[in-house]
């Protein structure tokens, strides 16, 4: 079990890097900017009623934060972060959220996106790092985070109890291991099972060291015992499994990062359903279409039998029919990032600030927000 960071270290992190652990209304942040003339909610209660998007962001001055925004991407308030964030997890039937630092990350930040309260940052031990993602348990009492051992990239699922938040701290209560190296995203496949995208890449910092013998896999763990209960693989071992989403039909959609030759056109999205074989089923597209994604998928969301996947490196997003696995739409979007579903429409973000609202008929409405959205967000 990891000891909590000392009060002196915590004070240095919060004062030196964050300035304040409270969620700050966006009006206070941009008061001196051209956004100060925009219409802003009059009270904190009215702000929280509009909350729709929670996502990590980058600021023009080089700092990072978590932004809570309405469904058009207009920021309502933000929590500063000491380093770049990555994934966001939301508590089922609750008001807590967790922001995970970008790999190899050093922190996990828990906050209440409704009440405007943030707890002290949980800091990883020197021989551990976070891989950027996590998920709450179905009852909202635990957080499962993807982690690794720095020297070997051995995958760890850290289990954190929220019951100690009343005392101002997050407590690590268990670790699961033995399922592979370089895990990235973890989701709940069902109420008892975690699905983990195991990238199979051993890194030093962000530099890969074993591209010749990668072992990527989609691994299913019992969330109480840590036992491996199922596993699926890709035929191409240079497809590092990164990002996951549970579709409307209960399948797991996997987004990959291709680690082979730049000119290769590898399928970057695949599906798997437990009990239907040990191989992931790639989605379909022409070679030149796969190359448009520049070997990387960031976020995936399911809506009415279709899947939308974004690629910040490819500056585009694609929409597939889940049953036929055929690509039905491929559109440009600069630094395409987070995606989720709200009121029967996809909400798609961009590192350039654009927010798209797309219906299942592929009709898109575009709004320019002032937020430089990072790769992922979650929908309230």
- Through-space gap between termini: 32 Å
Q: What radius of gyration results from the CA coordinates?
A: 20 Å
Unreliable residue stretches: 1-21, 26-46
User: How much helicity do the residues have?
Assistant: under 10%
Category from helices, strands and their pairing: mainly beta
Total E-strand runs? 32
Coarse morphology: globular
Average pLDDT metric: 86
Q: Approximately what portion of the residues adopt beta-strand conformation? A: over 45%
Q: DSSP helix count? A: 4
How is the largest sheet built, in terms of strand order? 1-4-3-2-32
Most strands sheet:
5 strands, antiparallel
Description:
- The protein is mainly beta.
- It is built from four helices and 32 strands.
- The protein has helices spanning 7-18, 26-29, 44-50, 287-292, and strands spanning 24-25, 53-58, 64-69, 75-81, 85-90, 96-101, 107-112, 117-118, 122-123, 128-136, 142-149, 154-161, 171-181, 183-190, 193-198, 203-204, 207-208, 217-222, 228-232, 239-246, 252-258, 269-272, 281-282, 300-303, 306-311, 316-321, 327-332, 336-342, 345-350, 354-358, 364-368, 372-379.
What's a quick, concise take on this entry?
This protein has 380 residues and is mainly beta. It has four helices and 32 strands.
Annotation keywords:
mainly beta, single chain, 5-stranded antiparallel beta sheet, disordered N terminus, 4 helices, 48% strand, 380 residues
């Amino acid at each position: 079990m990891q000891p909590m960071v000392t009060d002196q270290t915590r004070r240095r992190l919060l004062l030196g890097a964050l300035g304040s652990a409270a969620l700050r209304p966006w009006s206070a942040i941009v008061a001196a900017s051209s956004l100060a003339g925009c219409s802003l909610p009059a009270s904190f209660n009215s702000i929280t009623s509009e909350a729709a998007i929670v996502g990590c962001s980058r600021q023009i001055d080089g700092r990072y934060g978590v932004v809570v925004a309405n469904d058009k991407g207009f920021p309502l308030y933000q929590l500063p972060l000491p380093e770049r964030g990555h994934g966001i997890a939301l508590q089922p039937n609750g008001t807590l959220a967790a922001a995970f630092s970008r790999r190899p990350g050093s922190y996990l930040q828990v906050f209440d996106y409704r009440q405007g309260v943030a707890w002290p940052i949980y800091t990883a031990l020197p021989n551990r790092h976070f891989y950027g993602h996590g998920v709450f348990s179905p009852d909202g009492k635990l957080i499962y985070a993807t982690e690794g051992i720095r020297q070997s990239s051995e995958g760890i699922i850290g289990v954190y109890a929220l019951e100690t938040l009343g005392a101002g701290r997050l407590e690590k209560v268990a670790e699961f291991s033995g399922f592979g190296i370089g895990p990235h995203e973890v989701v709940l496949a069902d109420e008892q099972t975690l699905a983990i995208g195991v990238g199979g890449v051993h890194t030093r910092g962000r530099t890969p060291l074993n591209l010749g013998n990668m072992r990527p896999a989609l691994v299913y763990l019992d969330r109480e015992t840590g036992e491996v209960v199922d596993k699926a693989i890709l035929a191409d071992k240079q497809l590092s499994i990164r990002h996951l989403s549970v579709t409307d039909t209960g399948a797991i959609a996997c987004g990959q990062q291709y680690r082979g030759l730049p000119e290769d056109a590898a399928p970057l999205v695949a599906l798997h359903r437990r009990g239907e074989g040990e191989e992931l089923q790639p989605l379909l597209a022409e070679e030149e279409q796969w190359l448009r994604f520049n070997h990387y998928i960031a976020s995936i969301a399911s809506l009415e039998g279709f899947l939308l996947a974004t690629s910040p490196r490819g500056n585009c997003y694609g929409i597939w029919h889940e049953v036929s696995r055929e690509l039905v739409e491929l559109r440009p979007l600069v630094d395409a990032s987070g995606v989720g579903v709200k009121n029967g429409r996809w909400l798609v973000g961009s590192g350039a600030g654009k927010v798209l609202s797309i219906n299942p008929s592929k009709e898109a409405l575009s709004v320019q927000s002032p937020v430089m959205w990072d790769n992922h967000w979650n929908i309230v």
